[in-house]
Amino acid sequence: MNVEKQETINENGTYTTKKKITTTEEDGLINIRRIHGRRTESRERYFKGNAVSYHYQTNDPKVTKPALFIMSIVMLIAAAAMFVLAVLFHAMTILFFGVIFVIFGIVILISNVRAIHRVEKEIQDKEEQ
What are φ and ψ of residue 56, in 5° steps? Predict the structure, then answer.
């Protein structure tokens, strides 16, 4: 198993982490949590074979803010489509899932905007000093 990890601190004080994990059959059985992270699998699973996994993580508002708004817009469009389908087919189940999508979209948007504003404030404080 070959792990290439690159951690950089950007000029505005944010961080970016890029990781590439390459496995081959010669590595034998590997716990899937080592490849995809601990939170992805609730039980022990093992993998043997060729695989390449990429991970990208950052707290840079220039990247996270557009991604957040795009994800929220997609969720709200899906919710609107579910509402239209619920009205057309008189399906309460689809309407229920549409309401769930709206609630999750709004909660995700509000909670992540607060985190992004916190990072932006830290960046502004560092620039003022």
Answer: -135, 130
Measured CA distances, 122 to 5, 16, 114 (Å):
26, 16, 12
Report the chain's C-alpha Rg in angstroms.
20
Q: What is the pTM of this model?
A: 0.69
**Residue ranges of the domains in the chain?**
2-58, 61-128
**Which residues are CB-contacts of 114 (< 8 A; sequence separation ≥ 6)?**
none
Structure token pair of residue 23: 């496995």
State which H helix or E strand residue 111 sits in.
helix 92-128
Whether residue 37 has pLDDT greater than 80? no
H or E, element range at 4:
strand 2-9
Report the C-alpha gap between 61 and 82 in whole angstroms.
31
pLDDT tens for each residue of 116-128: 999 999 988 888 8
